[in-house]
Specification:
215 residues; 7-stranded mixed sheet; 45% helix
Length: 215
């Protein structure tokens, strides 16, 4: 009885404060950020796993802790007004869509709040290209996500890995390690790529594209 009375009195005296607190809670947007890669020691820090490396860089910067969950490693954090669910799928690259669909549904995240981080052969090393939709460009991970979700209308960050390989050596190149020169430049490029994540959540895809494309 007393609690109800106090609540009613408080609501009458400070209605604006209560409305603001309720509004802040309901407006907390949630995002799913997915770094694509392959699990296993043999794939760690290879070109095809740059999605893992980008999301690891971001997670470390915000102190997020990874947990082994269904379909992958998952971490959560908040950046100002945004709730972020970070995901490294354990499905292997070609079945990435299964993990993405599950966590979109599990966390009730709309597809427009999905951001996928991947490698791209068609972009020079370290260059970044952000798109809000589009074809998979021959990337098996993006292809499976599109197939499972039934749409290509989701944001993605492509990190250029270059195409310095001889004929017939594409798979070896993609699954291979970085050159010594690339390893020296990689930390700075990873830092910039990781900055895209909070920008996407707080500023939106259009402003993020203008700020970071080809940076």
């Amino acid at each position: 009885m007393w609690r109800r009375l106090i609540h009613n009195l408080t609501a009458g005296l400070f209605p604006a404060v209560i409305r603001k607190e309720t509004k802040d809670k309901t407006e907390m947007a949630k995002y799913l950020i997915v770094g694509l890669g392959n699990i296993g020691d043999e794939y760690q820090h290879t070109r095809h796993n740059i999605g893992f490396d980008i999301i690891d860089t971001f997670a470390e910067s915000v102190g997020a802790t990874w947990q082994d969950r269904r379909y992958g490693m998952v971490a959560t954090c908040r950046v100002k007004s945004a709730q972020l669910v970070l995901l490294k799928p354990s499905t292997y690259m070609n079945l990435s869509g299964n993990a993405v669909r599950y966590w979109l549904q599990q966390e009730k995240v709309p597809v427009e709040n999905l951001l996928v981080l991947v490698d791209d052969l068609n972009i020079p090393f370290g260059k970044l290209r952000i798109r809000k939709a589009g074809s998979n460009g021959g990337h098996n991970g993006l292809g499976h996500i599109q197939q499972v979700l039934g749409t290509d209308a989701y944001a993605r960050v492509r990190f250029g890995i270059g195409n310095e390989y001889t004929k017939g050596r594409q798979i070896n190149f993609v699954l291979g390690e970085w050159t010594d020169e690339e390893k020296q430049a990689l930390p700075e490029r990873l830092k910039i790529a990781a900055e895209i994540i909070p920008s996407f959540c707080l500023q939106g895809i259009d402003r993020t594209m203008n700020q970071y494309n080809n940076k």
